[in-house]
Design goal:
The chain has 220 residues and is α/β, with parallel strands linked by helices. It is 49% helix and 16% strand. Helix 2 packs across helix 7 and helix 4 packs across helix 7.
Length: 220
């Protein structure tokens, strides 16, 4: 009887250990304690790029919401510059610049570890396609983040354009938090336009973004 009780106790503690191991795998809090600001581009009176009834501002928000869920599941604290269909301007004079100024202000005052700005690209020619990451050299960390995200995308997906430095954009030259601009495809290209509207494709794209973010914090 004593041996039986001992066996039961051993099995009980083994089961607790195994459950703990499973939960540790399931609850992969690799981004615990990290604060990430997502910036869905455009909004409200500013639709961004357009293709028929498909508006960039709507896809930017959807991608941001889906990315937020993936980051939160990894333990990150996530903020967004907008949660609905509106811009951030509080002035009718030079509305676009005021909108960008307020996005910069939100991110700079947030004590965030990183920002990700999400847009769709567009071109007068429909031949241009592909996902591309841009960074400003205002912070050296921007290039590092851009490289790891681009490499993750290139290793796991097709039609990923090379990382590009871009210092001419007002907003990204003013942000004092490490981050990148993601152009998630060309709305003007029929193939990109179709793919970005597919949930499975978006999920794969964002999974690789998250993997790049995880890698960045490991090497930072």
């Amino acid at each position: 009887m004593r041996e039986y009780k001992t066996l039961i106790l051993v099995m009980f503690f083994l089961s607790i250990f195994c459950i703990g191991k499973v939960n540790a795998i399931v609850n992969d809090y690799s981004l615990l304690g990290k604060i990430i600001y997502i910036d869905p581009g455009h909004g409200g009176v500013d639709p961004g790029a357009m293709s028929s009834k498909f508006l960039e501002k709507d896809m930017n928000l959807l991608l941001s919401q889906e990315l937020e869920k993936k980051l939160v599941s990894k333990g990150a604290v996530v903020y967004k510059t907008r949660d609905g269909d509106y811009d951030l301007s509080n002035s009718t004079s030079n509305r676009k610049r005021n909108d960008l100024y307020n996005r910069v202000k939100l991110i700079n005052n947030s004590n965030s570890d990183m920002y990700i700005s999400i847009h769709l690209n567009s071109s007068p020619s429909n031949k241009w396609s592909g996902v591309q990451v841009f960074y400003s050299n205002v912070l050296k960390e921007n290039k590092v983040l851009g490289e790891v995200i681009t490499n993750n995308l290139k290793n796991n997906m097709y039609n990923i354009r090379d990382l590009k430095q871009e210092n001419s954009y007002y907003m990204y030259s003013k942000i004092k938090v490490p981050g990148i601009l993601l152009e998630a495809g060309f709305i003007s290209n029929s193939n990109d336009n179709y793919k970005i509207r597919q949930k499975d494709y978006r999920s794969k794209l964002l999974d690789n973004i998250v993997s790049g973010i995880e890698e960045y914090f490991l090497i930072k």
